[in-house]
Amino acid sequence: MPLLKPPSKQPKTTTLQVRLEEEVRHNLDQYAEFIGANASYVVSEALKLLFKRDDEFKRWLGEHPTNINQQQIREDVLTKTA
Questions:
Q1: Domain segments of the chain: what residues?
Q2: CA 81, 14, 11, 70 torsion: positive or negative?
Q3: Under 8 Å CB-to-CB from 65, ≥6 apart: which residues?
Q4: How many other CB atoms are found less than 10 A from the CB of residue 75?
Q5: What's the CA gap between 80 and 51, in Å, rounded?
Q6: CA distance 38 to 53
Q7: Torsion, CA 72, CA 50, CA 14, CA 42, rounded to 10
Q8: C-alpha dihedral over 51, 52, 56, 60, to 10 degrees?
Q9: Spatial separation of the C-alpha atoms in residues 68 and 55, rounded to whole Å
């Protein structure tokens, strides 16, 4: 069973340009095909999973409040892990 589920709805998005190792890009594309999604979705969901599981990051995030948008993201991350 895949760790990431295919998207059920289209959330609000933003653009980010990144450079990946060729093997990582290949595996990203393969995983996206595996779950029937696109690479952007896989990256987004993988990052959410990382943020959710990294307890040290969550503590750090709680100690470094920023603007309202980032604070809302932090609250969402903390709520999903509770």
A1: 22-81
A2: positive
A3: 71, 74
A4: 11
A5: 10
A6: 23
A7: -140
A8: 60
A9: 22
Cβ 35 vs Cβ 6: under 8 Å = yes
Q: Residue with structure tokens 């948008």? A: 69
C-alpha pair distances (Å), 49 with each of 1, 3, 22, 25, 77: 16, 9, 22, 18, 9
- Of the candidates 38, 39, 37, 44, the one whose C-alpha atom is nearest the C-alpha of residue 12 is 44
pLDDT tens for the chain, residues 1 to 82: 788 777 777 777 889 899 999 999 999 999 999 999 999 999 999 999 998 999 998 888 888 777 654 656 666 666 665 5
Give this prediction's pTM: 0.68
How many whole angstroms separate alpha carbon 21 and alpha carbon 23? 6
